[in-house]
Write a structure and sequence with these properties.
disordered N terminus, about 5% helix, mainly beta, 5-stranded mixed beta sheet, 22-stranded antiparallel barrel
């Protein structure tokens, strides 16, 4: 047995094929082998899903393995991009643009069990079997790992366990475990470079890695550097995202403005018609210019009407895919201290810079009308077109007082597009020791490991509005003159740079997460049974998680001039947060060989595990896991597991301060009570209510917060399946696994669309979380917060068919990997005391960024012959429902992406040149009314379209 405890499963050729018999569903690239290779020597290994060293990994639960070659051949440019293609992956944060909440982060959400849209907080992400620090974000820290903090160049392989593993790894491993394996010790230099571009000439991608390794007599060193850049794609440059599917039924906000000006209608001096510039017939500027003097002022305005006043805010430079630039360095030094003990130390630094472009501020202010109220415009203001400064006699000049229902809505193009910018830095320092010893006549292996890691983000949001300065700039000339720095503001014509600068506001914020982790493990054989050795692993872990959030002080201050009901700026406010928790854990695991080489039992193995956790926040808990692997004959493995899961509330869920959000959701009361006579919760809403005319292009304003009263959630996971590799058909493997997961006291927030839908359909207590403007009907506040729902239930089947064979024209490897989602039900308590509310999502896509197709799959066919290789990949996402609407049918269509790739390998420097095309037939994501205004689920589909790339690699 080797003296170093091996923690990875990175075998090649026939050794890999033999070992993967028991693995569930390998993806297209993972199953492609270039040809026969010498058989590798298999020492004792530890694979994800078990802490026990063993020579037979077949009894481990549903496991997927990706090698370094698989990662290269996937065409992916990041860890998240690779993992999110898996059929078992649900909606996950990715690089897609400005309609979501990723802000440059990336996540993996197995089984759709993430606690919030795109979150991965029920998936445990490990690096070399050890925990990784949680992510940070534009509007507060995260409670899951940001995959973009792991440089691609340091990765040797990835294992994905699609099974509950809390008893082995602790909290968060409810949906599964992702174990990223770093590069092993080697001698030489490995270089790769990749560049790509879409067929539209945008979305350029550049990446490069440089790895150096050197092994000495008793030590080794590995250094890795990575760089990746992805350029933007604009919504206006793709047909699917250029214009919102939701039609405007009344004129929307534009740079020319929409004006409600009491006293202007039927005005004899100006000669205006009845109803002019009223709430039912707002006025707009005729052109983006000035206005006439005196009685001619009104001639520069007209009643807004469609289609002439249709304005598309999505065309104003918004990102469909946001730009990102990442670079990272990783190093490890390992030394053999004695024949039995080795030591290693490693360090990492990673930096990500990303940004998202939004439309300019959609200003909505007024006296007793508008989103932000209490403003006034004096009759002697220098930029009141209907005031004395514009030549209107005092007797005829109009004042728009704070007590009047005047209103101005305007797209502030003078300030420029809003731009959110993130600068994220990750540090990690770790050290460990591994060794062996002999006790009780047996060989034992041990390891000890400690790490400290930290994520920090400096974020800014450019081109917002300072409401206090705007208030001063619209106030009386005398007050403005007496206020230092006050500049009178013109809302009726283009602003000067001085005006724009005086009200422009940049939000600057900071948040961070920190992890300190210490572990110790020991594994060996207790004694030998007739069927083989009874193996055991045991260990201890101490972990401390910290997080802090420091939002912009001024943006979160109470207004001085405006009512405290409103905010000081357009920035969304939140309460500063500091939180931490610590825990102690211990576990034990047994691998019990029951039968071997007897009739109907070539092998029968049982695995048992238990873990005790003690948190300083929620107390203690014990979880257990049991599994069985039965081989009635050598070719067939029948396996099953039952496990308990446990997840304590995260720092985010416990301590997050109240935070304003803008939620993408379709308001079922759009069009008012007249258009929704069967929905009691829409009663009293006026017929001219159009969601798109309020807040930020129709987004729903809300507030969310943590909850210190949360209890831990628990889970029961069952899985059963088989792996069949018939000896009569070499190279053929069939696997299938059924899973059933029930999470009790699940920590989650009800989806905004669910809250709005229940309010509309049932009214009464169901509307307690929804506040509307009594005049306009617009949602002014939707309350969400973490709570212990009754439960979440999900079940389904994963299946894989793989076949590798050789012919006279080369070697072929084919794979089909599929996943069927049978059920995904959220059970919530009824606020009126009635039966629980069941929300079944399987097969549905009628909520924003929440697509749950029954069927997903991917496949590949690879051919190789000598230095040549060709690869076809396909990825299928099945159809789902959509919101019932008048624009399209209530279905989100299925889609099938296809890729082609070719590689030629040179003998010199082991150089390779690869040319590929992703999304060969330029498939655009299926249209989704529920995801307007972006029109597709950005966490499920890709709007890049066809793209080509070239990749070069060499080593020496």
């Amino acid at each position: 047995m080797t003296t170093t405890r091996i923690k990875t499963l990175c075998l090649s050729g026939s050794a890999f094929a033999a070992l993967s018999v028991g693995l569930l569903g390998l993806p297209a690239a993972a199953l492609a082998q270039s040809g026969p290779e010498p058989e590798a020597t298999v020492d004792e290994i530890v694979v994800t899903g078990s802490r026990i060293q063993r020579r037979d990994a077949d009894s481990v639960g549903p496991l997927l393995t990706l090698t370094a070659e698989d990662i290269r051949n996937s065409g992916a440019v990041s860890v998240g991009d690779l993992l999110q293609r898996l059929p078992s992956a649900g909606v996950s944060l990715n690089s897609n643009g400005t309609q979501g909440t990723s802000y440059g982060a990336s996540s993996i959400n197995l089984r759709y069990l993430g606690g919030a849209e795109g979150s991965g907080n029920r998936v445990l992400v490990l690096v070399d079997g050890q925990r990784w620090v949680d992510g940070v974000g534009q509007r507060g820290f995260r409670d899951f790992v940001d995959l973009n903090t792991i440089p691609l160049g340091m990765i040797e392989g990835i294992e994905v366990l699609k099974d509950g593993a809390s008893a082995i790894y602790g909290a968060d491993a409810i949906a599964g475990v992702v174990n990223v394996q770093t590069i092993r010790d080697f001698d030489g230099v490995r270089l790769t470079a990749r560049t790509g571009i879409t067929s539209e000439g945008d979305g350029e991608q550049y990446s490069a890695t440089a790895n150096f390794g050197r092994r000495f007599e008793n030590s080794s060193v590995v250094l890795s550097a990575s760089y990746a850049r992805e350029d933007a794609i604009l919504t206006s440059d793709r047909d699917r995202t250029a214009v919102s599917l939701v039609p405007l039924t009344s004129p929307g906000t534009s740079p020319r403005g929409l004006f409600v000006l009491p006293g202007l209608a039927n005005n004899a001096y100006f000669g205006t018609a009845a109803g002019f510039a009223t709430s039912t017939s707002p006025a707009t500027a005729v052109a983006l210019g000035g206005y006439g003097a005196g009685a001619l002022a009104d001639d520069s305005f007209r009643t807004a009407a469609l289609p002439g006043d249709l304005y598309n805010t999505q065309a104003q430079g918004l990102y469909s895919a946001g730009p990102s630039e990442r670079y990272g360095v990783f190093g490890r030094f390992r030394a053999q201290l004695t024949e039995q003990v080795s030591f290693h130390v490693e360090g990492l630094y990673n930096r990500r810079q990303s940004n998202q472009l939004f439309s300019p501020v959609l200003l909505d202010i007024g006296g007793t009308s508008g989103t932000i109220r209490g403003f006034s415009l004096a009759n002697n203001h220098p930029f009141n077109p209907f005031g004395t400064a514009n030549g209107v006699p005092t007797a005829n000049a109009l004042t728009f007082a704070a007590t009047q229902a005047w209103r101005v809505r305007k797209v502030l193009t003078d300030l420029g597009n809003r731009d959110n910018i993130q600068d994220v830095e990750t540090w990690r320092i770790a050290a460990g020791a591994e060794g062996t010893f002999t006790a009780l006549g047996r060989d034992w292996s041990w390891d000890a490991f400690g790490s400290w890691s930290r994520n920090e983000i400096q974020s800014s949001a450019l081109n917002g509005v300072n409401y206090e300065n705007l208030f001063r700039g619209l106030g009386s000339p005398a007050s403005c003159l007496a206020s230092a720095g006050c500049v009178p503001i013109n809302l009726f014509a283009p602003m000067t740079p001085e005006m724009a600068n005086s009200i422009r506001f940049t939000t600057r914020e900071f948040n961070a997460t920190e992890l300190f982790d210490v572990t110790y493990n020991i594994t060996g054989d207790l004694f030998t049974l007739p069927a083989g050795p009874l193996s055991v692993a045991a260990g201890y872990e101490y972990r401390q998680n910290k997080a802090e959030d420091r939002p912009d002080v001024y943006a979160n201050s109470t207004p001085v001039l405006l009512s405290s009901l409103y905010t000081t700026t357009t920035a969304q406010t939140r309460v500063p947060t500091v939180g931490e928790y610590a825990l102690h854990e211990g576990y034990v695991e047994f691998a019990v060989p029951v039968l071997a080489d007897v009739p109907l039992a070539h092998r029968l193995d049982v695995s048992l595990a238990a873990r005790y956790s003690n948190y300083d926040t929620v107390g203690d808990a014990t979880t257990v896991k049991a599994g069985v692997g039965w081989r009635p004959v050598e070719d067939l493995l029948i396996r099953g597991t039952w496990s308990q899961g446990f997840r304590a509330p995260s720092i985010l869920e416990l301590f997050q301060g109240g935070r304003e959000v803008s939620v993408q959701a379709i308001d079922p009361c759009n069009g008012g009570a007249a258009a929704r006579p069967t929905l009691p919760g829409c009663a009293g809403i006026p017929a001219n209510y159009n969601q798109a005319n309020f807040n930020l292009n129709g987004l729903i304003p809300g507030v969310t917060s943590g909850n210190r009263q949360l209890e831990p959630e628990t889970a029961d996971t069952f899985s059963a399946g088989f792996a069949f590799q018939p000896g009569a058909v070499p190279g053929l493997t069939l696997t299938a696994d059924w899973y059933d997961i029930t999470i009790s006291d699940a920590i989650a927030s009800q989806a905004a669309a669910q809250i709005l839908g229940l309010c509309a359909a049932r009214a009464g207590a169901f509307c307690d979380l929804v506040t509307r403007d009594p005049v306009t009907g617009a949602v002014t506040r939707l309350t969400q917060g973490a709570q212990n729902l009754s439960e979440i239930r999900t079940s389904g089947v994963d299946a894989t068919v793989r076949y590798e064979f050789s012919t006279g024209i080369g070697r072929f490897a084919a794979v089909l990997d599929t996943s069927y989602l049978e059920e995904f039900t959220t059970v919530s308590p009824d606020p009126t005391g009635g039966p629980d509310i069941l929300d079944e999502r399987a097969g549905k896509g009628d909520r924003s960024r929440s697509t749950y197709p029954h069927w997903k799959g991917q496949g590949s066919l690879r051919w190789s012959d000598g230095p040549w290789m060709a690869l076809w990949r396909g990825r299928y996402i099945g159809e789902t429902t959509d919101v019932v609407n008048a624009v399209k049918d209530a279905t989100t269509d299925a889609i099938f992406y296809q890729d082609l790739e070719g590689t030629y390998s040179f003998d010199r420097y082991d150089a390779t040149v690869t040319v590929g095309v992703s999304n060969l037939f330029d498939e655009q994501p299926p249209a989704s009314y529920a995801n307007a205004p972006i029109n597709y689920d950005i966490y499920t589909y890709d709007a890049r379209g066809r793209s080509a790339y070239i990749r070069v690699g060499l080593q020496f």
